[in-house]
Amino acid sequence: MSPADHILAALAIPVIGAILIALCRKHPNLRETVTLVTAVLLFANVATLLPVVLEGGRPAVYGFPVTHELSIAFEVEPLGMLFGLIASFLWIVNSVYSIGYMRGNKEPRQTQFYVCFAVALASSVGIAFAGNLFTLFVFYEILTLSTYPLVAHHGDAKARTGARIYLVLLLSTSIVLFIPAFLWTLSIAGTLDFVPGGILAGKASPLATGVLLALFAFGIGKAALMPVHKWLPNAMVAPTPVSALLHAVAVVKAGVFTILKVSIYIFGPEHLQATGASEWLVYLATFSLLAASVVALTKDNLKARLAYSTVSQLGYIVLAAAIATPLALIGGALHILMHAFGKITLFFVAGAIHTATHKTEISQLNGIGRVMPFTMGAFFIGALSIIGLPPLGGAWSKLYIALGGLDGDYWFVVAALMISSLLNVAYLMPIVVRAFFRPPDPDDHGHGHGHEAAAPAEGGSMWSRMQEAPWLCVVPLCFTALACFVLFFAPDAVETLLSGMLEAPR
Amino acid sequence: MIAAHLPALQVVVPLLAAPLCAILRQGTIAWLIALVANWCAFVISIALVLQVRELGIISYELGGWAPPIGIEYRVDLVNAFVLMVVSGVGAVIIPYARKSIESEIPRAQRGWFYTMYLLCLTGLLGVTITGDAFNIFVFLEISSLSSYVMIAMGRDRRALTASYRYLIMGTIGATFIVIGIGLLWAMTGTLNLNDLADRVPAIEEARPVLAALAFLTVGISLKLALFPLHLWLPNAYAYAPSAASAFLAGTATKVAIYLFFRFFFTVFGGEGFFDSTPLPEIIMVLSIVAMFAPGVVAIFQSNIKRLFAYSSVAQIGFITLGISLASEPGLTGALVHIANHAIMKAGLFMLIGCIVFRLGSMRLEDMAGIGRTMPFTMAGIVVLGLGLLGAPATAGFISKWYLAEAALLQGLWWLVGLILLGSVVSMIYVGRVVEIAYFREPSEKVAGLKEAPLSMLIPGWVLVIATIYFGLDTTWTVGIAQDAAASLLSALY
Fold it and tell me: pLDDT for B419-460, tens place per residue?
C-alpha cells in the first residue's frame, strides 16, 4: 500500500469498525474485541506513515473538488502526524479502560457508546490529516456531532443540559465565527490549503490579521479559550472514558491542534510576529490559563477540577500559537503530547475511583490511597507531569513555551507560567496528600454501593486492604503514568519530527 | 423526432395521465400511472437539461403557431434546472406515496388523489417551461387548485380549513398576478416573455409598468410564502396527507420562486433595472425577517409537521435573500438552495410521514424515544436536519456558502453574520426534535412500534443520501446553477 492508501485506510478503519461494532451489538465480548482490533489496526496503520514523514515526505491524497474553491484533500505533515499518533495510540489504551469502566458501572447503551467513539476517532484522524481548512472544518463538525451522544449518554436531565450546552456552544461558535473566518481567508488568499509559511503572509493587513485571528481563536471553540470554555466542564457529565480520551485528548486537542495549524500554515509564524497581530492573544491566553487554574482550585468535584485544569493547559498551547516563535510552536506541539498522557491518566484515576467506590468529590477521598495505592500512585505521577516537574514529560513542553516566550520578548509569560505551575501544585497536590496522609473518614466503609468487601482493616497487609477498580481500569492508568515518565526522555525524537513543520516549502 | 418535442411532452405526459387516473379510479392502477408519468417527466427533464447545455436555449412553438400568436415553450438553463428539481422530487415521492396514501385516504378517493397529484405536477412543470405570461397564470391555477384538493384530503378535519385558507390567499395571489400580466399586456401588446423582455425595458419608467411589477411581486410573494405572506403555509403543510406535504414543500413554492427569477431578471431587463427599484431592499429586509421570525416560531411548535413547515418559510427567506443580492454568487446560492431545500424538505416530510404512518400522531411529545424503535427513520431525519442547518458535507452547507460569499463580495459583513445566525436558529429546532426522539424514555406506544415499511423508508433515504451527495459533489447543482445565474444576469433568454 502506498502512503496515500494508508491515509484513506486511517479514515476507513474506524468507520468500518463502527459498523461492525453496531452489527455485533448482541455479543458484548465480540463487540469489545472489534473495538480493540480496530484501535490497534488504526494505530498500526497511522504509524506506517511516520517514517515517510520523518524523511521529509508529505503523503497526500488530493481528494475531489466540492465547489470551485472548496475541496476535500489530505496531507500528512509533522504536526498532524503527531496528533494522529497520539489520538490513535491512546484510543487503544482507552478502549481497554472503557471495557473495564463500562462493565464495572453497568452502563446502558454500550453499543452506541463504542460506535460513537469509533466515529469520533475517525474524525480526529480526519482533522489530523486534513490538507486544507475546509476538510479540517468538515471533520471538526463531525467530531462535535459524534461526541454529542457520548456527552448525553446518561440521558438524565443533567446529562441533557450538559450535552445541550456542549452542542450549542461548539456548533454555534463554529458556524458564526469559524465559517466567516475561512470565508474571509479564502477571499484574501484565494486558497485554503495549508502551506508552510502561511497563505496570508504578506496579503493580510495587520488589522485584518488580528481580527481574523480572533475569529479563529473563538470560532474554534474546542480550544476552550476563555470565554468559550463553558462547554468543557459541562461535558464532564459523560462517562469517564469519554472525558478521558475525548475531553482531555481528542476533542480539545483537535481544537488547539487547529489553532496551531492555523498559526503555522494559514497565518505563518513570521507574519504573526512581524505584524504583532497576535499580541492580544498572548495576553488573553495568559489570562485564560491563570484564571482557569484559579477556578480549578475552587472545585470540589474531581472531574470538574480536572476539566478546569484542562482549560488552563489548553491555554498554554494557544499561548504558544500566539507567541509563534519556533521554540514556542514546538513547545505547543509537545504540550499536546505531554498533556495528553498526563491528563488521560488523571481522568482514568477519577473513573477508577468512581468505579470502585462511587465517589466523585475530592473531599470524600481521605485515605483512599491506602485502598487504591496503584490508582493514586498513578495520579501522583500524572499530576507531577501536569505541573511540569522533571523527570516527567510535562517538564519539557512548559520549558519550551517559556523559552519561546523569551524569544518573542514576552517576559511576563515566563512569570505567568511559573505562577501557573504553582497553581497546578495547589489544586493537584492536596488530592494526593488527602489520599495518602489523611485517615479514612470514620463513617465511610467504602461499601455503600453494593461492594461486599469489608471496611479496610487497619494493620492488615497492603494486599488485603486493597479495593482497586477492575484490573482493566487499573492497568491502562498505570501504563499511561509510566508513559509520562518515558516521555521525559523523548523530546529529541519528537523535536526531530516537529522541526519539519517549520521548514519553508521545498 | 421525439427529441424535438420534449418541451411539449414534459407537460403533456402528466396532463394526459391525469384524466386516465380519474377514469380508472382504482388506487393501485392510478398509482402505477402516476409513477410511470412522473418518471417519464423526470427523464424528459434530464434530457432537456442536457439538450440546453449542448445547444443553448430551446424554443418550441406549440402546435406550430409562431410566438406572438401561438404559445411558445422556452427552455433555458434556469427553468430546465427547476424542471429537473420538480420532476425529480416527484419521482422519488411517488413510490413512497402508495403505502402512505393507503393509510391516510379512503379507498374511494385514492384514484382522485393521484389525479390531483398529476394535475399539480402538470401545472408546476407548465409554469416553469412556458414562455407565455398568461400561460403562466393558467398553469399556476391548475397547480394551485389541485393542491387545494390534495390538502383537503388530509385525515385531520383541520385540513379543510387549512385548504380553504390557502384557497383564499392563493386566489388573491393569482388575482394580483393576472392583474400584473394584464397591465404588461396593455402596455406592450404581447404576452410572450421573450417579446416582453424586448419591449419592457424601453418603457420601464412608465407608471403602469411599475404597477405591474408591484402586482406581480406581491402575487408571487403570496404563492411562494414570503414573510409576511406565509400564513397559509404552516397549516396547509401540517394537515395535508404526508405525500402531498412532501411534494408541495419540495416543489410548489420553488416554482413560484422561479417566477421571481423570470420576471425580475428576464422580463424587467436584468440586473440594472432590478437594482434601480427599491425591490432589492424590500425583499432583503423581508427575507432577513423570514430567516429569523418563523425560525423562532418553529422552535415552539408542538406539531412536528408544523415545525418543519415554519422552517420552510425560514428557508425560503434564504432563497429570496440570494435573489435580493442580484449578483452571480447570490443567484447561484438561491438556485442551488431551491434544489437543495427541495431535496431536504421533501425528505424530511417523507420520513416524518413514516413516523405518522406508524405512530398515527404528529405531536412531538408523542415521539419521545422514537429514535430507538425507528432508528433508520430518525437517523435520516437527523441527517436532513443537519443539512437544513448547513452542516458541512451536506447540501445545505453549499447553498449557505454561496449566499455568505455573495454577501461578502458586496462587503455586507453584517449579512454574513445574519446568514450564519439563521443557521443557529435552525440548529435549535432541529436539536429539539433530536433530543425528544433520542433522550427521552419511550412511551409504551412508541416502544411497541416497528420500523417503517421499506417502500417508504427507501425513497426517504434516497433523499438523505442525495443530501450528503450534493454536499460533496456539486457538478449537477452548482455547476448548472452558476451558468444559469450568469445567463439571468446578462438577461439572456
Answer: 999 888 998 999 899 888 888 888 888 888 888 889 999 999
Q: Do A183 and B408 touch (CB under 8 A)?
A: yes
Element (DSSP H or E) covering residue A465: helix A462-465
Q: Is the peptide bond before A391 cis (omega within 30 degrees of 0)?
A: yes
A64: chain B residues, CB-CB within 8 Å = 472-473
**Chain B residues within 8 A of A180 when measuring between CB atoms:** 404, 416-417, 420
For A75-104, the pLDDT digits (tens) are 998 899 999 999 999 999 888 888 888 887
> Is the per-residue pLDDT at A69 higher than 50?
yes
Distance from CA of B80 to the nearest CA of A (A): 21
Domain range annotation of chain A? 3-446+460-502
| Tally of residues, chain A | 506
Measuring CA to CA, how many Å separate B321 from each of A270, B280, B314, B315, B337? 40, 9, 11, 10, 11
The residues that bridge with A75 in the sheet, in sequence order, are A60
**The three grid cell numbers given for residue B155, joined into one nine-digit string:** 385525515
Find the residue in B nearest to A151 (Cα): B439
Cβ of residue A206 closer than 8 Å to a chain B Cβ = no
Q: Which residue has the higher pLDDT, A444 or A408?
A: A408
What dihedral angle (degrees, nearest 10) is formed by the CA atoms of A32, A35, A37, A38? 170
User: Which amino acid, one-letter code, is at B131?
Assistant: G
> Which residues lie below 8 Å from residue A39, measured CB to CB, with a gap of 6+?
A17, A88, A91, A92, A95, A121
DSSP H helices, B360-412, are 370-373, 375-389, 395-409
* Cβ contact, residue pair A70, B401, below 8 Å: yes
- Chain A, 123 to 182: residues with Cβ < 8 Å from chain B are 134, 137-138, 141-142, 145, 149, 152, 155, 159-160, 163-164, 167-168, 171-172, 175-176, 179-180
Chain A residues within an 8 Å CB radius of B428: 168
Which residue, chain included where needed, has cell 468559550?
A228
Provide ipTM, 2 decimals.
Answer: 0.84
Dihedral sign (CA B148, B153, B156, B160): positive
- Mutate which: A25, A67, A123, vs B, most B CBs within 10 A: A67
Q: Which of B395, B398, B406, B402 has its CA nearest to residue B466? A: B395
Place of cell 405531536: B363
